Structure formats: structure tokens, C-alpha cells
């Protein structure tokens, strides 16, 4: 005598989804806790601190939006903002052009050559920023003793005080920024070039396209998302410039190289003006976020076109 098989009990379709959701949140919980404690909470605290005056020594008191009007009328903050914009205007296009030219030259080479060049260019990124600044200061020594001035002297050019002259200090620090981050840009662009299908080039060559047409009609359009990413990150990094200014010039000469972040640091830790510095931090955050959204919007519009 045979018996009918017992029907198996199946959980509803939403049961497994709920279980997977719980598992996902369980794995995300440590990151979310750390993010809230070390990222979100300090940002919210900075917003609240920007509405107060004072510091750690004398305490703080609520003054509302008075800090914001004072910061906008502060000539030192405007000077720091102008210097920071100059850093970004000089460093980002220079790094973009040099890294793109290097990536185009390196990409056709053999695989082991490309690997060697990638490692060589990546070394400044994993080196100590203090060591890099010491090397850069040695290269930019004033007078004929400096290696860069010695090279210029061989071409009949006078020596320059690169880090001590108001006209040269910002280009010198911008050059340091380009040099220290140059490897990252090249590596990202090489990855973008590797992602371009070779069939596009082969089909274009069959149609009689030359090198310039291959570059303008295939390479640059395919690299547009990569270039957008690098331009956004480059603007963010240069607007947050601090370490190069701190280690090379301390904001000198005569505040000619002060960046916004260095000015914030000096106000908070040298003059104990936490509320004032928090206000500048909030304004910088809003500026970086606005420029990033603007770049992404126009970049995606170009991609869609």
C-alpha cells in the first residue's frame, strides 16, 4: 500500500528576502557604526559648532549665523580661497595633460614594460609625504645650489627663490601636487585605455582613419568617463590641499601660499577659534559638493550627447 507524499512546507517568497536583508544589514552594521561615529557625527558637530564662537580654552557660546557673515568679509579667508582656486586651476589641467600623454605613450608597450612603469609611477603615492616634501625642498633650493636653479643656469636663466617669492610659490606647490599624484592619474588612464575594444580601432583603420582620427573619434570619447572621474577627484583633492602647504611653506611668504584647509587648521589650533574654523569648514564642504555636482552634471550631459 503506497501513501501519498507529504506536501513540503515552503516559506513564503518574502521570507528568504527578509532573511537576506537581515544578513546584509548584519554585515553592514560594523561599517555603518564606524561611519556614523567617525564621519557623520563630526560633520554634524562641525555644522553645530559653526553657529558658536570661542574655542577649547574659553568655551563656546551660541551666536547664530554671525560667523558666516564674518567669514565672507574676512580678507584672509578670501585670500586663502583665491590661492586654493589657483592651485586647482594650475594642477588639475597640468596633471590631466601630462598623465594622458604618458598613458598614450605607455599603452602600446609590452606588458612587462607597462607593469614596470606603473610601479615606478606609483612609488610617490605610497611614500611618506614628509620625505617627498624634503626631496622637493632640496630640488627648489634658492640660489645656484638648488638643482632646478642649476639646470636653469645652464640655459642662461637667473636663479629663482621658488618657495620664497609670492609669484613662484603657488606654481611650485602646484608642481609638487602634480608630481606626487601623477602616477595615480596615469594608472587610471591606462586602465581606461585597456577597456577600449581593439575592434573599434581595427574597423576604423579599415575605413582609412588616421592616428588623429583614431584619437579624436575613438580614444577620447571612450575615455570620457575616466577623464570625468579624474577631473572631479582632482578638483576635490586640490581644494582640500593642506600637507604640501604645511610642510613646504607654512603658508608663507606673507600668506601667499595659504590654502583654505591650512587657514582652517591655523585658526583652530593656533588661535583657538573653533567656531570660526568650523564655519570655514562648512563653507568649503558646500563649495566642494557644489562643484562636484556641477562637474558630474555637465560631464554626464556630454556623455549622453
Structure description:
The mean pLDDT is 88. It is built from 12 helices and 2 strands. The protein has 2 domains: 20-62, no CATH class; 73-304, MetI-like (MetI-like fold), CATH 1.10.3720.10. It starts with 12 loop residues before the first helix and ends with a helix. By secondary structure, the chain is mainly α. It is globular, with a radius of gyration of 26 Å. Strands 1-2 form a two-stranded antiparallel ribbon. A hairpin with a 3-residue loop joins strand 1 and strand 2. The chain has helices at 13-49, 66-72, 75-106, 111-126, 129-139, 147-154, 169-194, 198-206, 211-239, 243-248, 260-269, 274-304, and strands spanning 52-55, 59-62. Helix content is 73%, strand content 3%.
How does the SSE layout of this entry go?
Blueprint: H1 13-49, E1 52-55, E2 59-62, H2 66-72, H3 75-106, H4 111-126, H5 129-139, H6 147-154, H7 169-194, H8 198-206, H9 211-239, H10 243-248, H11 260-269, H12 274-304
Antiparallel strand pairs: 1-2
Helix pairs in contact: 1-12, 3-7, 3-9, 4-7, 7-9, 9-12, 11-12
